[in-house]
Amino acid sequence: MAKETDHGSRFHGIWKKGLKGAMAPAALVFLYVFFGIFGRNYFSYPTLVNIIDAAYYIGFIAMGVTFVIISGGIDLSIGTVMMCAAIIGGTALKHGLPMVPTLVLIIAVGTAFGLFNGLMVSRLKMPPFIVTLGTMMISMGLGSIVSNVSSATFPIRDAPGGWFKSLFLYLTPDGTGVPTGALLLGIVALVCHVVLTNTKLGRYTYAIGSNIEAARLSGIDVKTWQTLVYVLTGALAGIGGVSYAAIYTTVLPAQGQGFELNAIAAAVIGGTSLSGGVGTIWGTMIGVFIMSVLATGLPSLNLEAHYQTFFTGVIVIGAVLLDMYRIRRSSEVRIETRADAYRASMAVRIEGLRREMAAAGAGGDAARSAEFRREISSLCAEAKAGYRKAKREEKSELARLRAEERASDREFAEMLKRKE
Amino acid sequence: MKFQGRKRILLGMLFLGMTAPLCLGAQPDIYIPVISKGFQHQFWQAVKQGAEAAAKKNGVTVTFEGPPTEADIQAQVQMLVNAMAKNPQAICLAALDTNSVIDQLNQAAKKHIPIIGFDSGVPQAPKGSIYATAATNSYNAAALAADKMFPVIKDKLAAATASNPVFIVDFNQDATSQSVTSRGKGFRDEMVKLVTTQLKRPVTDIRVQGNAAYIAADSPTKGKAIVIDVAVPPSPKDVDITATAQAILNRVKSDNIAGVFCSNEGAARGVLASTNDGSALPTQYRGLAVIGFDAGKAQKAAVKNKYFLGAITQDPVQIGYKAVELAVQAIKGQKVQDVDTGAKFYDASNMDAAEFQPLLYD
């Protein structure tokens, strides 16, 4: 008996503490198994490769936006910046730039946009929402201007420069795909995780997101670190652009709107709080893969793309609700009432009896332990009844107080009227 | 106690989950995903209708999907990739961009999954991946336009002389798109053929002039009586098309233009835009025979009001039907080849018939 209570309370503890930690991975596993059972040929190697492939470009920008959101900001421009970087790279490639400098250029363009966002937000104190909304349009326009509104095609496999596709998906001679990009995504995720948890930049990101004024007053150079967060996000958008070019080959101008929302959704599903100061890279990656599993799983049930959008929406709302509930629970101010105190004291008594009973049971005294059991159950009943009674009293007390308040309010209002 | 109840539910769900695939997997069916270039547009809905009809007839399962717009390459690639992971027996594909799907095409070729192109198909696909394509033969479709225009302008052409030549304008939106150029050439060649066979006029009476891309090596270029003038705007933008259309219309009287063939909806819209939605055609340009291509609200109204002689429409229902049929044949190991899904001519008299309803989109 004692064991079960023990187990129960531990379970309760995990449930309370690790809700955010356990919920998203559980949802991911559940979805994967669900589609595996009901989907067509879902538990298969090609599908696994597809899930990973579909995770790249959202994955990179989602990690970036996680940093920004933890720092208390938002970046709406990552999607279009990613595509802008990719199309600028593709256009340069068209004009004869070799592959390696092109890839560097793509990441540099992303970083430059990040720097711009960062400076605007940290130095000029503009709201991140507005700044990045502007950058979103600027990057869309710039991509079109530079590419002269024509599409840019990256080299296909086996063409000169086509090797960069193998960075993300290596095709064996018999046509089987090896998702080499998973390694890259994993490395970048690991680096981001280490940066976020073990470096100054990471600690300050949390500090700024929790309370920017407190961070400033405690001597953190908020401007620099805030800028750096956006720069990092921009660089990640650049890497996302490279992955997009590798997987989808052709890049059209003025694309990428909506990707940022997918990335933000992934971060939110993974437990990043939009109010700042809370979030992990690990959680975001889970969020990314949940979306990726949805993107590949729903078609395996023969459901078209619009269902996917629908269900992603449902999951985002669910995740945010959970997030809000968690925050409310953790920041709730609880006043210990008489009823609570009574219940706690009763619980201590019952627990003591239980321990004694367990000891008696171990000693082999069957009659005594039976007696204890009776006593415990009667005490339990008493505790329940007493708690209910106390609670009822509390409620009626509260009602009385409210009524008094209302009455005095009315009195006060009448008094004011009379004065007029 | 509480835990046992929960466990029971869990066990039940697990059991259900394990048995469900047994029931679902019991029917070994032929599955063919159809991936188009669009979805919402009426044209694609008509393709879908045809694909589903063919699926029903052949007892196969099809799914039909397409990206929201023709710019959503990424979405289409995702659809193709997802479809391939489902181990389909064949795939029908109208690719937005061949370069983006080369890996998938190669993979399909290696796994011997037949891919059937439809509509515009998959141009420049790697060898061996596309088994056949079901599409409108643009050349033949435009020839149909010449066949319909010829009886109306026959007398004028017969009376044409070197001192009083007659013009026929072949109006094309551009000189690069494959479908548009094939249409322009189809109209040109059929018109030359009709003049020489039906009117028995020598080919030396005919002259093809205008955009160089449309003048073939064997096209007559020396004739003086009948001129086939190929007009192409400087760019396929609406403003340029309209300006070119206006320039053509200004020459109707002076050059004695008998007919205009607009080889796509854009060209037809250009003519309509410079004639006050076509209402100026019967008044200012009496006797001018105009034939359009495809549908669209403005063009349909022009046909209905008899401003246009009529227009050619593709047959999206047939495109979808034939694509799935080709796929089924390919799965069975039969030899398949490209299919012309045909084109139809509609005018004020027949455009309300039931058979045209799925074809004439707004």
Explain what this protein looks like in three dimensions.
The complex is a heterodimer of chains A (420) and B (362). Chain A is mainly α and 420 residues long. Chain A has helices at residues 2-17, 19-38, 45-70, 78-94, 99-122, 128-147, 181-198, 200-210, 212-217, 222-248, 259-269, 281-300, 305-331, 338-363, 366-419; strands at residues 152-153, 170-171, 177-178, 250-251. Chain A is extended, with a radius of gyration of 29 Å. Chain A starts with a helix and ends with a helix. With 362 residues, chain B is an alpha/beta fold. Chain B is elongated and about 70 Å long. Chain B contains twelve helices and 13 strands. The model of chain B is unreliable at 18-27 (pLDDT under 50). The A-B interface holds A 33-34, 37-42, 44, 46-47, 50, 53-54, 151, 153, 156-157, 165, 169, 171, 174-175, 177, 244, 247-250, 252, 255, 295-296, 299-300, 302, 304-305 and B 17-18, 20-21, 24, 31, 39, 63, 65, 67-68, 71, 73-75, 77-79, 81-87, 97, 99-100, 102-103, 106-107, 110-111.
Write the layout of secondary structure elements.
The complex is a heterodimer of chains A (420) and B (362).
Chain A: H1 2-17, H2 19-38, H3 45-70, H4 78-94, H5 99-122, H6 128-147, E1 152-153, E2 170-171, E3 177-178, H7 181-198, H8 200-210, H9 212-217, H10 222-248, E4 250-251, H11 259-269, H12 281-300, H13 305-331, H14 338-363, H15 366-419
Antiparallel strand pairs in A: 1-4, 2-3
Chain B: H1 2-24, E1 31-35, H2 42-58, E2 61-65, H3 73-85, E3 91-93, H4 102-111, E4 115-118, E5 130-135, H5 138-159, E6 166-171, H6 178-197, E7 206-210, E8 226-231, H7 238-250, H8 252-255, E9 257-262, H9 265-273, H10 281-284, E10 289-293, H11 297-304, E11 310-314, H12 316-331, E12 339-340, E13 343-346
Parallel strand pairs in B: 1-2, 1-3, 3-4, 4-5, 5-12, 6-8, 6-9, 7-8, 9-10, 10-11
Antiparallel strand pairs in B: 11-13
Helix pairs in contact in B: 2-12, 5-6, 7-9
